[in-house]
Amino acid sequence: MSSMELSGRTCLITGANRGLGLAMATEFARAGAHVILACRTPADAAAAVRSRVPGASLEEATVDLTRLGSLRGLKADILVNNAAVVSDSPEHTVTVNLLAPFLMSRLVPASVVVNVAAANHRQVSDLEAPVPEGRRESYRHTKAVLVSLTLELARRSPVLASAFCPGVMATRLLDEFRGVPGNGTAASPRDSALVAVELARSGGTGRYLEGGRDVPPSPAAADPVVAARLWDHWSRRAGLGA
Ligand SMILES: NC(=O)c1ccc[n+]([C@@H]2O[C@H](COP(=O)([O-])OP(=O)(O)OC[C@H]3O[C@@H](n4cnc5c(N)ncnc54)[C@H](OP(=O)(O)O)[C@@H]3O)[C@@H](O)[C@H]2O)c1
Fold first, then answer.
1. Residue 155's domain is classified under what CATH number?
2. Would 135 be classed as within a structural domain?
3. Is the CB of 82 under 6 A from ligand 1?
């Protein structure tokens, strides 16, 4: 795998205002990338990154991922689809966790796409079943389909597309997933942010990582025949041609 210099490259990160997204914005900026903070509160995100990396090269983009029409016109060399929700509404979960990153990966002219997935995608065996009710079930389902579509993007295009699970981190999303406030045992997002930087830097495509290491995703998410059908289905749902 060829190594890529991040200095001078533009990296767009969704949900860059807190949690893993803020940690990744910080670490990509520290590595010399020009970082586009794509979130609902980009000025706050910029202040938070600058407090950690005073010389950071930053750009603010107000992006609400529930407004899919607003995602056109964004540009970057490296696209990091990070934002996600755990929601009582499966439709909300599908929009933010799946349709928005899928659309972004098709619309943003990036040469590298990094999608933030979750190891619990392994609990989903039928990726073509309707998205289930239930906050955890719909979350896992969207993550499983996202892994499948990431690998399909890698097969269909010259884009270097990979996904990784950041591991259990002490963030609001974890509390929402567990349904209880955190007990402080989960890791901070910084180590996972460094995995993302390394993933973007090291090149390669069609990769999936857990714990910072390349591992096979679930057999269902790795199935290319299923992925091709999912690509067509979710392209139609996103209003795109195949
Ligand atoms: N935490 C874990 O243990 C864990 C484990 C596995 C995978 N992950 C994955 O890691 C990624 C980051 O999650 P996190 O743990 O860092 O959670 P987090 O701190 O709760 O961050 C979630 C981010 O998503 C953004 N977001 C939600 N809805 C949005 C919308 N409509 N438009 C724009 N941004 C929106 C939030 O922005 P607002 O502040 O504007 O809401 C926030 O920046 C997610 O993909 C998650 O699935 C996390």
1. 3.40.50.720
2. yes
3. yes
